Amino acid sequence: MGGQYFMEVRSIGLLAEVLFVEHKKFAENYRLYARSHFIKAIELGVILTLYASFGSASGNTLVYILLTISSWFLVLSWILAPFIFNPSGLDWLKNFNDFEDFLNWIWFQGGISVKSEQSWEKWWEEETDHHLRMTGLWGSILEIILDLRFFFFQYAIVYRLHIAGQSRSILVYLLSWACILLAFVALMTVAYFRDKYSAKKHIRYRLIQAIVVSGTVAAIVLLLQFTNFQFVDTFTGLLAFLPTGWGIVSIALVFRPFLRRSEMVWKTVVTVARLYDILFGVIVMAPVAVLSWLPGLQEMQTRILFNDAFSRGLHISQIITGKKAHAV
């Protein structure tokens, strides 16, 4: 995992050129490119998915492909580039081990002396601290305005749910916010009991988790039974509520100095942000895992990355072989 690869190329003058190539772990790539590449790619991918489902070109596949192929290429480039140009980035076993290391990094609690390379929470705090220090008052106001764009997803989608019954009432939008509020209350409850019982009385903590999950399943069953709610609304609703949740987290970071006064509220924000980074990691790893599973791509990647070294080694071996044959 994350070891170094060694390649030696002999020159004609019998001097050795040594090339060291290091495989970057998934967690390290995520720390480097999460905010600059991955999140932007996921946001653009969600927009393209919504356009495919509800846009004017949703009924014509050819038109949709022609209109969005360049945008999808940009999404895939942002996601895959750090791994395609990473030695052994398409190795299935290494990606499996790297993702396991990524999850360990995400869930590692750590302490005061922990580095960002060891703990997600430390890395996240450093990222937000640096951002707050570099942003003034007007920058914070502008950031809040920009983060409001995530709420447009919810406003546009909730009226297309079957449970809305083609209603255009503002009550539908307000009820959707009630669902988000219930989700945050559930997360705050789980976070509270985790801190209180997970260390010694973990059975009670598991019981609270079971109650929350059972309540969610029961609510979905009741909605299916007594309303126009359809199961597909669950996935459509995720496209509406997940961007809203990320927008809330982004705005909460602007008010971090005030929210930290309430330990429970801030822990809830941290918990939600952690879950989002896990989700982002899964989304990023999915296409990488698919490419790693396909046969022949790893060898092709290695050949492309080190084509110059391979070519020089091949030419030199031919020259040396020719000289030896001529001498004989």
Automatic annotation (TrEMBL):
A biological process (GO) annotation for this entry? (1->3)-beta-D-glucan biosynthetic process
GO terms (molecular function) for this protein are: 1,3-beta-D-glucan synthase activity
Key words, A-Z: Membrane, Transmembrane, Transmembrane helix
> Do the record's keywords include Transmembrane?
yes
Q: Could you list the residue ranges forming a coiled coil in this record? A: none
Looking up InterPro entries in the UniProt record yields:
Glyco_trans_48_dom
A Pfam family of the record is: Glucan_synthase
GO cellular component term of the entry, any: 1,3-beta-D-glucan synthase complex
Q: Which positions, given as ranges, span the membrane?
A: 38-57, 63-85, 170-193, 205-226, 238-255, 275-294
- Outline the extent of the Glycosyl transferase domain: 20-224
PANTHER family on file: 1,3-BETA-GLUCAN SYNTHASE, LYST-INTERACTING PROTEIN LIP5 DOPAMINE RESPONSIVE PROTEIN DRG-1
In Swiss-Prot or TrEMBL terms, this protein is called Glycosyl transferase 48 domain-containing protein
Q: Which organism is it from?
A: Eleusine coracana subsp. coracana
